[in-house]
Amino acid sequence: MQITHGALLKPAAAHKSENLSGTIRIPGDKSISHRSFMFGGLASGQTRITGLLEGEDVLATGMAMQAMGAHIRKEQDTWIIDGVGNGCLLEPEASLDFGNAGTGVRLTIGLVGTYAFTATFTGDASLSKRPMGRVLDPLRLMGVQVTAQEGDRLPVTLRGPRIANPISYRVPMASAQVKSAVLLAGLNAPGTTTVIEEVMTRDHTEKMLAGFGAQLSVETDNDGVRTIALQGQGKLTGQEIDVPGDPSSTAFPLVAALLVPGSDITIENVLVNPTRTGLVTTLLEMGADIQITNLRLAGGEDVADLVVRHSELKGVSVPPERAPSMIDEYPALAVAAAFAQGETVMQGLEELRVKESDRLSAVAEGLKLNGVDCDEGKASLSVRGVPGGKGLGAVSEGAAVKTHLDHRIAMSFLVMGLASERSITVDDASIIATSFPEFMDMMAGFGARITSKQEAA
Ligand code: S3P
Description:
The chain is an alpha/beta fold. It folds into 2 domains: 12-28 and 244-456, Enolpyruvate transferase domain (UDP-n-acetylglucosamine1-carboxyvinyl-transferase, Chain, Alpha-beta prism); 30-242, Enolpyruvate transferase domain (UDP-n-acetylglucosamine1-carboxyvinyl-transferase, Chain, Alpha-beta prism), CATH 3.65.10.10. Helices cover 27% and strands 26% of the residues. The chain has a 4-stranded mixed sheet. The chain has a 4-stranded mixed sheet with strand order 2-15-17-16. Strands 4-5-3-14 form a 4-stranded mixed sheet. The chain is globular. The protein binds shikimate-3-phosphate (S3P). The site of shikimate-3-phosphate has 10 residues, from helix 5.
């Protein structure tokens, strides 16, 4: 299957809505779904996964694991994987196409880099612009030969050494993908691979690898610096995984319900791992009516149901150190801020420049296009809100937000259109299928007025 976007854009428009109501179950977490396919494909024996996100990004990772020897099938609601065993991936016969998926490609580059075979990685126009040096640099230290496009972009070809060199690596930016890539490379290196992260990022790799039986220790010093040490070449054993709902996808119906008058929705089975809850913390500070109910532990992760009601929000200053726990949620937060009383200031946003799009400028451009007063800094965004959304929406007939092959830009501005005085159009909604294929139906199901039309680019 070849997944491409951009040849045929599918614009969609969101219109002022009222009284969003109902109970929804958000699809599985993207980070955990990628890792479930990867670790299940790598481990000995069988892994059974329920609740997997069946978005294009995750399916690309599944296809890559299949191309390297894993057997993957689906029976009713369960994905069943027969893995190859740690150290036993096969050389892929063709290049591995990851479409739009940054997590898929960066983690798999780590996983495969230390194998003594050749593998080539490709992606769509968005992924091909994103920096891969951050995962290629530690691999080079491990003895991996790298061929890449200028600026360490895709397509990338790797050839691992006969025996990889285990390293100790301080991750230079707050990135769970880089941390994970180094740890996964360490799975096929002798001895101990160590990763030091100064700011804690999402910890799914550490938790899940331990669950699959990897020998791994995590120490946190008094300054919060974490040292993760992994013993390479150990055995991994297949697991049962129930993937909780994605907090990053939750952001869209959550913000929609806060902004649309009369709304009252329940979002079930949401992952509330503390490395992922920065948006909820920030919205609560802004005065959001969000009740976290039915808090429970499921498969080693904290999960809860969220009851969300329309709220009058006020602007806040979001501390930069919160960024890693809400890094994918800034576009949705910026939309919430556009309806808050006063100014919301977001700082520490340098990583937003290298997401599926330059999200900082894509968000600022989209807000301005729809009448919002905001300032884009080098690594910051300030938004001055209009409670009630009066005057917001497309300032000129037919002006469409440019989504730049970025699913979260598309969903954020569709949410904005539900509460703005005038409708908002995005130039492409097809890209939403990378992470949240059910988005349109789910939003319509609780009363959101979103219309789509197919048009040639
Ligand atoms: C992810 C890590 C984050 C996040 C991405 C998923 C992961 O990327 O933005 O959507 O699953 O490890 P960075 O590591 O680049 O911050």
